[in-house]
Amino acid sequence: MSEQTAQQLRQQIAELVGRYAELELATSPFVAGKDTVPPSGKVIGAPELQAMTEAVLDGWLTTGRFNQAFEKRLSRYLGRRGVLTANSGSSANLLAFSALTSPRLGDRAIGKGDEVIGVAAGFPTTVNPILQFGAVPVFVDIELGTYNINPALIEAAIGPRTKAIMLAHTLGNPFNLKVVRELCDRYGLWLIEDCCDALGATYDGRQVGSFGDLGTLSFYPAHHITMGEGGAVFTDSPLLKRLVESFRDWGRDCYCGPGEDNTCSKRFCWQLGDLPQGYDHKYTYSHLGYNLKITDMQAACALAQMDRVDDFIAARKRNFDWLSERLSGCTDQLILPHATANSDPSWFGFPLTLRDGCGVERLDLLRHLDAQKVGTRLLFAGNLTRQPYMKDQQYRVASELTVTDKVMKDTFWIGLWPGLSEQHLEHAACNIESYVRRLR
User: Mind listing the domains of the chain with CATH numbers?
Assistant: First the structure.
């Protein structure tokens, strides 16, 4: 088959995929009581399907040209020099933390028994890498409204074995990066910013993730952009990028990409560990690593999504503002969310907390909303220390987790993702309002 014919077939396939997307992915008007208001979801169309199809037709399958293009595009967007994709946001957190355990960091490496400050009100895989390695998470309480760590409590939690702070920007709302960054500088601590829910959020005009030594993202369908399953780690440090890459790619010392050989021009000239001189660098391993790469089809989807990321984030902000205004008459019963000072969130969800004494039980409200086809989610694990798997884990609680327990008992969130129309939002808000105000 000639090259021209192959290209013509690709073009025809792309056109057919576009027509299919128009038919199958078109949205229909919302019907209250019949249609669900999902708490999260993806927005994809012809560009994503066409890009993924093109990657499939390449036949490369593992990370290739689409992944390289996506990493470069994401690097420009974030303003960070080093970006590496991974197969999930949870894997990205694992890689970011693992990099800080490398012996190549000398005395600054996190060791077993060292402490890492975080919160118990969040997603477990922000904390699990700490436990899996054998370090000790130290839990600090949070604030209502922002749902982030209480900055006034952090310094008291720092001890002689504290090596790092690892925090998520809760539901896209940045934590107080001024205080956290200053404390990290003062005490010589690493900072990992879990930005999985916060792509596009800023603090003091800077992108979240640009304050820490390492940042992470998730591209699960619920997140700001998607590739199905996927994530990324980013940093400005060439050393940390190299360590992340090693842990991601089996722990090997070589940094050749898939299909590459002898990038260093001395593949058979190395002598590391107790291996013989000249042992193939491609099969020399300096870390206890994993295989956490993505496929090029996933990268192709995310690359197409980057064309829409600004619109997606703007829609989330509009929906947040709409819900804030619509539910403003319920503040006697509900604590509404607010942005951290000096921040511009990129909201992942709209969190609500029932006030003490309001006469409403969360479980009853959630059952009511479920019956009305309004999807809800809790603030992830609520209080991690009360989860079954934490029973025999080693951790330290630095302050009473009073607010964390309040969130576990009385907080939930609803969706504001770009696929929701004003009719979706009105149905959700109307049912919340009517239920919480019924006892007035």
Answer: 54-304 (3.40.640.10), 306-436 (3.90.1150.10)
